[in-house]
């Protein structure tokens, strides 16, 4: 077996890799490892995140010890963290820091006031009846547009309001609402909680099903101001925009992702009495502020969103929550310090080589495709040639000069949110900044952004087991190599493949090639629809929801193995391939609390980790390396193996 077998604990030799690679590599670990009491899941991803958190804490404390000028970035980092850690001051202030918002809620008389209040709430970090964000126009990637998406729910997904399996969670949610309303001394807290739940349920009835929201064509709805007013006449867009802090021209053209939801929302606005909207708004104000209020609010909020929804027994230590706050508000200022201490130049150099090999492997793979015509291949090559890799950290870090931090925690949180709102809104009418990063350097993750056709690998993930300058090449290609391949693969998944190299929705496929691609995608959907997680017997993966990530995994691992061969200059030996595939399975070593498993199976576009690891069943290279035979658990007849890229 692979060299990893002896190098890392947790393998289960009673499980053959030919039957279950995930179980073989992780079985003993899964059986014996305890999830930390303040975590809902555990594994290499979370371990690295914890390590990065410790590093950031050390940076913050080091900066604070130097007593920096509070107007400088180090001073703002230190002051924000100090305001969170000063529990006595938080308790003494009570809910007075959010009193202006609560008073504003009490004063609303009609739906115009409601819209204005929602703009104000969203500006300072709250969530309203819908979501909004700034992004590039998917059919004109050289400009930014305001995007509107369905929202307004307190539970993770619309299915939580109708599916019988979530009945207990609905009951717990109403109890939670009553609890936080009671803490704020709202009259008839229990009755108000029931009425809020009724409003949520009305809103949920207009939501699109989660898999449908992945469709980049259905969710691209370029809408003029006049059309927006006609779509949702019950909502006062002008009042909302003013209090959000946006210019009037922000709504000249917008993208409405789910138009039928806005039409539905407009109807709900007219059905619900204003006094019930006040109760609903109070709950939104309290929910968004709860993590920064006295301990009773923090505990109530965690009890539902942590214990009930995710199964996490223990609230995270205050310093950990303080680090998260600082990263959310001043993340790139912290990131600048992080990379100076924890990201050696040699890592970036090696990553440049890895990315080059992965891109070369994709080109080689496309050349050999027997289902794609030469015409579409040329377009694929063009897109591949324009991929922009971002490795480690931004070339230019964000400027936080305009953000003022004091000693009031809630005021600081609201100031940071308003600062970011202004930064985002200022993009409208400005040139697209293709150097912007959408993850922090210390983040343990990676992404592909179709609108800029970029792949990004922050410094945080460029560590073992994903990557190390000292690791065997097979380990690196089974770890970060497959991750790189996965992110490139998103440019060619069922949705990303509809974007061209310039980041625009542009059909570059022949009709026959598109049909062949869809046949393969549907085969992968059907394969995953048949999978039932080992800890949730009787429940199944949603193949339509997860197909994009599954295509990313399938292509990423396939191309990672091809790139490994390019790096070697020869075909890998069976043992080398076993090492690569074993490290892939090790990277997905994950143990989740059952509550989180159930939640993620409903809302997560990624498949459960066991199925991400065992996607190897589709790779000829896996079957060759491990000598699988008919009857083995991971055996698939060659005709049934899905190979897209």
TrEMBL record:
PROSITE patterns listed in its UniProt record: NEPRILYSIN
Enzyme Commission numbers on file: 3.4.24.-
Pfam families registered for this protein in UniProt: Peptidase_M13, Peptidase_M13_N
Record domain Peptidase M13 N-terminal: where: 17-394
InterPro entries named in the record: MetalloPept_cat_dom_sf (IPR024079), Peptidase_M13 (IPR000718), Peptidase_M13_C (IPR018497), Peptidase_M13_dom_2 (IPR042089), Peptidase_M13_N (IPR008753)
GO molecular function, one term: hydrolase activity
Domain Peptidase M13 C-terminal: 445-642
Keyword entries, A-Z: Hydrolase, Metal-binding, Metalloprotease, Protease, Zinc
PANTHER family tied to this protein: FI17812P1-RELATED, ZINC METALLOPROTEASE FAMILY M13 NEPRILYSIN-RELATED
UniProt name for this protein: M13-type metalloendopeptidase
Native organism taxonomy: Bacteria, Bacillati, Actinomycetota, Actinomycetes, Propionibacteriales
């Amino acid at each position: 077996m692979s060299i990893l077998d002896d190098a890392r604990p947790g393998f289960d030799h009673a499980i053959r890799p030919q039957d279950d690679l995930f179980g073989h590599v992780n079985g003993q670990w899964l059986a014996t490892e305890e999830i930390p009491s303040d975590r809902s899941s555990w594994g290499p991803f979370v371990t690295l995140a914890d390590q990065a958190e410790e590093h950031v804490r050390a940076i913050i404390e080091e900066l604070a010890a130097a007593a920096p000028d509070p107007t400088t970035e180090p001073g703002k980092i230190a002051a924000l963290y100090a305001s969170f850690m000063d529990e006595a001051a938080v308790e003494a202030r009570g809910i007075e820091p959010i009193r202006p918002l609560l008073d504003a809620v009490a004063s609303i008389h009609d739906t115009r006031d409601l819209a204005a209040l929602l703009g104000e709430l969203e500006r300072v970090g709250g969530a309203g009846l819908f979501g909004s964000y700034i992004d590039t126009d998917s059919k004109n990637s050289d400009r930014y547009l305001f995007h509107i998406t369905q929202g307004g729910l307190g539970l993770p997904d619309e299915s939580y309001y109708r599916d019988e399996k979530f009945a207990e969670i609905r009951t717990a949610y109403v109890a939670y609402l009553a609890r936080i309303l009671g803490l704020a001394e709202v009259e008839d807290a229990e009755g108000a909680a029931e009425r809020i739940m009724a409003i949520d349920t009305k809103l949920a009835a207009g939501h699109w099903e989660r898999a449908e929201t992945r469709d980049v064509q259905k969710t691209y709805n370029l809408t003029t101001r006049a059309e927006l007013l006609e779509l949702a006449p019950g909502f006062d867009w002008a009042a909302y925009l003013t209090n959000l802090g946006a210019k009037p021209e922000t709504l000249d053209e917008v993208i409405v992702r789910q138009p039928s939801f806005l039409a539905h929302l407009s109807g709900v606005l007219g059905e619900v009495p204003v006094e019930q909207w006040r109760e609903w708004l109070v709950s939104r104000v309290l929910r968004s502020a709860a993590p920064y209020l006295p301990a009773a609010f923090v505990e109530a909020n965690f009890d539902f969103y942590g214990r009930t929804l995710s199964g996490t027994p223990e609230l995270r230590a205050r310093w950990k929550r303080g680090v998260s706050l600082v990263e959310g508000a001043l993340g790139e200022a912290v990131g600048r310090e992080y990379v100076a201490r924890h990201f050696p130049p040699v890592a970036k150099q090696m990553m440049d080589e890895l990315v080059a090999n992965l891109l070369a492997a994709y080109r080689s793979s496309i050349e050999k495709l027997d289902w794609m015509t030469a015409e579409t291949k040329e377009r694929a090559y063009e897109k591949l040639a324009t991929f922009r890799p971002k490795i480690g950290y931004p070339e230019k870090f964000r400027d936080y000069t305009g953000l003022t931090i004091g000693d009031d925690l809630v005021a600081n949180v609201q100031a940071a949110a308003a600062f970011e709102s202004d930064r985002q809104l200022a993009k409208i009418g400005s040139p697209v900044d293709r150097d912007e990063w959408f993850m922090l350097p210390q983040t343990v993750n990676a992404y592909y952004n179709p609108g800029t056709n970029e792949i990004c690998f922050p410094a945080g993930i460029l560590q073992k087991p994903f990557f190390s300058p000292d690791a065997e090449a097979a380990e690196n290609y089974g770890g970060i190599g497959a991750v790189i391949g996965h992110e490139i693969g998103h440019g060619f998944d069922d949705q990303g493949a509809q974007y061209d190299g310039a980041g625009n929705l542009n059909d570059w496929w022949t009709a026959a090639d598109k049909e062949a691609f869809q046949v393969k995608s549907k085969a992968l959907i059907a394969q995953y629809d048949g999978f039932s997680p080992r800890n949730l017997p009787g429940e199944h993966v949603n193949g339509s929801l997860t197909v994009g990530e599954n295509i990313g995994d399938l292509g990423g691992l396939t191309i990672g193995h091809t790139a490994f061969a390019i790096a070697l200059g020869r075909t890998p030996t069976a043992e080398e391939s076993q090492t690569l595939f074993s490290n892939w399975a090790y990277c997905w070593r994950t143990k989740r609390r059952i509550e989180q498993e159930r939640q993620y199976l409903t809302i997560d576009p990624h498949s459960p980790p066991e199925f991400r690891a065992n996607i190897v069943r589709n790779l000829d290279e896996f079957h060759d390396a491990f000598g699988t035979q008919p009857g083995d658990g991971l055996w698939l007849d060659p005709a049934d193996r899905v190979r897209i890229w």
